[in-house]
Every structure is written in C-alpha cells, then in structure tokens.
C-alpha cells in the first residue's frame, strides 16, 4: 500500500481524545457542514419572510412553523448522512490503520469518538436552527411545543446517523449511504401503516404484515404532540373532516403520539446499533492488525 494514501489523522490517533479530534476535523472542522448549516439557516429566514400562511394569528404561526420544520427535519437527515460519510470514508481508504499496531487506537475509543462527534454535531445543528426559529417566532403561542418538536427531529436523525455508520463500517460507503435511507423510509412507512390500521382507514393485507414484521428491525420515528396540533389546525382551517390521504393526515384524533413503549423500543434500537458498531469495529481492528506488520519502536519514532 502507498503510504501517502494513509489518513494522517489516523496515524496520530491513540485514544478517545485523539479520536474525537480526528473525527471533528473530518466533519465540522471542514467547510462543508458549517456551510450547509449556514445555508439552511438562511433558507429558514427566507421561508419565514416569504412563505404564505393561513389567515389568523394562530393559523399563520402554525403554518410557518410547519414549513420550517420540514426544512429542519430534512436538513438534519442530510447532515446525519454527510457526517457518517465524513467520519468513516478516510478510514475505509486507509484500511482502518488507526486500529492497527501502528495506530494503537482500540475499537471502543474509535467507535466512541465518532459517535460523540456525529451526535454532538447534529445536536449543535438542531440547537442553532431551533434558536433561530424561536427568535423569528418571538412571542408566539407555540414556542415551547416548537422547541420540543425540534428536539424530537434531532432524536429521529440519530438512528439514521448510527445506522449509516454501522453499514458504512461493515459494508462500505455505497451500502452505508443508500441502505440506511431505504431502511429509515421503510420504518417510517410501517409506523404510519400501524396507525392507519389501528384507525381502520386501510384494510389489512399480507404486504403490510410483512413490512410490519421487517420494520421491527428498522428505526421508527418518534411523534410528539406538536404534529397533532398542526394537523388539527389544518383540519379546522380547511374545514375538512378528519381523513387520511396517502401519508397526509388531517385531524388530531388520528395522530398517535409516541408513548413509553415507543420510547423504550427506540432506546433499545439505539443500544443494538451501538453494539453492532462495536462488533464491526472489532472486526475491522482484527483486519488492520493482521494487515500491518508492527515495526520497531525506535524506527517508528524516526
């Protein structure tokens, strides 16, 4: 292997603190993610100024919040994928040398450093965008509910980040970026179907049963009360009876807010992803140790 292809940051990583510095330098230490965050913040401001909203103080506030929340939710998902790619792409190129005899970084430190930076970066982005929305909606009626909703959007982006990291570490970049999005979409669709089946708005079928069974292995988003508030307001403003149309919902009685069981399942899924990532890192470390031959300490220092 050509020595110039090795990730220089990997060679210096010897522990948890070093892994955090390496991971931060690959993500928020570069220009891409800060530029994306600045672009999303600018888009939120533009949407607040030019997006048409229903008449009435309450309807107008909820309409504007619903619009910017779609942007924030999508931005956090994109940020999760970009972060996952940046955190592990150099390691794939250098064949995980930081966990070899030369790198001397253990699988646990390797995993923890990337998760801390990845999740922390998403939290930073959610805080910045959430504060921006709160400032633009200063004095609004639903500021508390909006802050909680942005926090839920951040929490829902964490499984995508972790899933993308696990798949990328195990199978490579293409599988990590594509399969994680597909799995997240299936999990979200299964959550909608479960709610629709419970309401009796769709008829049971074998296809739904299969998707529901598979979805137990996939991330399911948490739903907070603010979603129901917005949809109830749309129902009143549009003077419609509660109906389902595709994935669109009108009517607060059709929204199933996540309960204790959903939160426990969500937490269990995150723990399972962390365990899978640790196993994948141990496998990569074993490969790296068998691939690189240790050199004498005095020669390595030179």
Describe this structure in words.
This protein is mostly helical. The protein has one domain (9-301). It contains eleven helices and two strands; from the N terminus they run H-H-H-H-H-H-H-H-H-E-E-H-H. A two-stranded antiparallel ribbon has the order 1-2. Helix 5 runs antiparallel to helix 6, helix 5 crosses helix 10 and helix 7 (173-199) packs across helix 8 (206-215). The model is unreliable at 1-12 (pLDDT under 50).
Task: Annotate the secondary structure layout.
Blueprint: H1 8-12, H2 16-26, H3 32-50, H4 57-93, H5 107-136, H6 143-171, H7 173-199, H8 206-215, H9 225-238, E1 244-245, E2 248-249, H10 260-291, H11 297-301
Antiparallel strand pairs: 1-2
The proportion of residues in beta strands is under 5%
The count of domains is 1
Structural class: mainly alpha
Tell how many strands the DSSP assignment holds.
Answer: 2
- The residue fraction in helices comes out at over 70%
Q: Characterize the biggest β-sheet.
A: 2 strands, antiparallel
Query: Quick check: average pLDDT?
Result: 81
Number of helices, counting only DSSP H or I runs of 4 residues or more: 11
**Helix and strand pattern:** HHHHHHHHHEEHH
Low-confidence stretches: 1-12
Radius of gyration: 22 Å
């Amino acid at each position: 292997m050509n020595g110039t292809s090795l990730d220089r940051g990997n060679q210096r990583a010897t522990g948890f603190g070093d892994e955090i510095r390496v991971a931060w330098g690959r993500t928020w230490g570069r220009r891409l993610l800060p530029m994306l965050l600045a672009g999303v913040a600018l888009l939120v401001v533009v949407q607040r100024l030019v997006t048409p909203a229903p008449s009435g103080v309450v309807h107008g506030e909820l309409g504007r919040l619903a619009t910017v929340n779609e942007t924030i939710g999508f931005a956090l998902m994109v940020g999760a994928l970009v972060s996952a790619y940046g955190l592990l792409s150099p390691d794939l190129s250098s064949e995980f040398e930081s966990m070899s005899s030369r790198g001397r970084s253990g699988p646990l430190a390797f995993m923890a450093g990337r998760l801390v930076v990845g999740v922390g970066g998403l939290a930073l982005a959610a805080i910045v965008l959430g504060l921006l929305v709160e400032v633009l909606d200063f004095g609004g009626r639903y500021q508390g509910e909006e802050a909680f909703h942005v926090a839920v959007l951040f929490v829902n982006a964490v499984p995508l980040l972790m899933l993308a990291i696990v798949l990328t570490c195990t199978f490579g970049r293409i599988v990590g970026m594509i399969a994680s999005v597909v799995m997240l979409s299936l999990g979200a669709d299964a959550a909608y179907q479960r709610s629709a089946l419970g309401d009796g708005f769709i008829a049971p079928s074998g296809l739904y049963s299969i998707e529901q069974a598979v979805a137990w292995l996939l991330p399911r988003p948490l739903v907070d009360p603010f979603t129901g508030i917005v949809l109830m307001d749309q129902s009143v403003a549009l003077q419609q009876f509660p109906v389902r149309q595709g994935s669109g919902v009108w009517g607060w009685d059709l929204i199933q807010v996540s309960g204790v069981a959903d939160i426990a399942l969500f937490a269990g899924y995150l723990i399972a992803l962390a365990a899978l990532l640790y196993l994948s890192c141990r496998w990569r470390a074993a490969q790296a140790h068998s691939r690189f031959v240790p050199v004498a300490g005095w020669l390595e220092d030179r």
